[in-house]
Amino acid sequence: MPDDTQSLASLGEIAAKLEGAGIRWALFAGAAASAYGAERVITDLDILVPHGEAQRLLELLPEAELVSLQPGLTHLALPEVDLLAGMGAVDLDAPMAARITRHEIGGVRVPVIPREDNILLKATWGRGADQGKHDWEDVEAMMASAPALDWQYLRWRASTLDKPAQMKKIVARLEGLWRQLHRAEGEGQGE
Q1: Which of 7, 152, 154, 160 could form a disulfide with 80 if both were Cys (CB 3.0 to 4.6 A apart)?
Q2: What does the alpha-carbon distance between residue 154 and residue 119 come to, in Å, rounded to a whole number?
Q3: Are the beta carbons of 61 and 79 closer than 8 angstroms?
Q4: What is the torsional sign of CA 146, 181, 153, 39?
Q5: Residues pairing with 28 in the sheet
Q6: Within 13 A of 12's CA, how many CA atoms are on the CB side?
Q7: pLDDT for 7-38, tens place per residue?
Q8: Per-10-residue mean pLDDT, the chain, length 191
Q9: DSSP for 159-175?
Q10: At 163, phi and psi to the nearest 5?
Q11: Is the distance from CB of 122 to CB of 139 less than 8 angstroms?
C-alpha cells in the first residue's frame, strides 16, 4: 500500500504510547481502507479509541490540540494524525474490538477497525474528490478485495446508527455494489 512517509513518521511513537498505557485503539478511515485494498497514498492517520478513554487520551498526549469535546466525541489532533475518542453513535465497542485485525502500515503492525465498520463509515460519510476525500472509491476497493463480508454484522452496526431511513438506503446501495463487484464469482451478497 502506498504511503506518505512523513504522515506515518509518528505512528510507531503513538502506537507505543497507546499500547503502553493499555488504551485499546485502531486505525480507521483512509489508512484502514488502504489496509483493506484501496491503493492510494496514505496522507494522514485517523485513530479511534473508546469514548471512555477520552480523559486518559488527553493526559497521555498533552501536546495534541483539542479540536472538539462533546458528548460521545473527543477529537485531538497531532500533525497528520487525528485521534478520536468515540465518534458519536460509533465507538470502539466490544463487538468492533472483537473483529479488529492487525496490518502493517508504515512499517508498524497496527490494529485496524473491521472492514465492515470502515465500509459503513466511509459509505455514511460519502465524501468525494470535491472535498479532497475518496469515500466511495475506498468503499468499492475494500469490497472488491474482500472474498466475503459479514453482512449480518454490517446490518446490525447500521441499525445502531442515527437516521435509520438513511442507513437502510446506504446498506441497500452497499448490497447492490457487492452484487455488481462479485457477480462474476457467482457469490451472492452473503447472509
Answers
A1: 7
A2: 9
A3: no
A4: positive
A5: 46
A6: 7
A7: 566 899 999 999 999 999 999 999 999 999 99
A8: 56 94 96 93 91 95 94 92 90 96 92 98 90 91 96 96 93 96 64 46
A9: HTSS-HHHHHHHHHHHH
A10: 60, 70
A11: yes
Q: Quote the cell numbers at residue 22.
A: 493499555
DSSP 148: -
Q: Residue 40: what pLDDT?
A: 81
One-letter amino acid identity for 62? Answer: P
Residue with cell 447492490: 176
**Which domains can be identified in the chain, with CATH numbers?**
5-185 (3.30.460.40)
Write the single-letter amino acid at 118.
N
Instruction: In whole angstroms, give the CA distance from residue 177 to residue 165.
Output: 19
Q: Which residues contact 31 (CB under 8 A, 6 or more apart)?
A: 42, 44, 45, 46, 105, 112
The H or E element that residue 83 is part of is strand 81-85
* Residue 100, phi then psi, degrees to nearest 5: -60, 140
What is the C-alpha to C-alpha distance for residues 22 and 20, in angstroms, rounded to an integer? Answer: 5
Q: Which residue has the cell 459503513?
A: 120
| Nearest Cα residue to 95 out of 147, 156, 172 | 156
Q: Please give the grid coordinates belonging to residue 190.
A: 452473503
How far is the C-alpha of 94 from the C-alpha of 77, rounded, in Å? 25
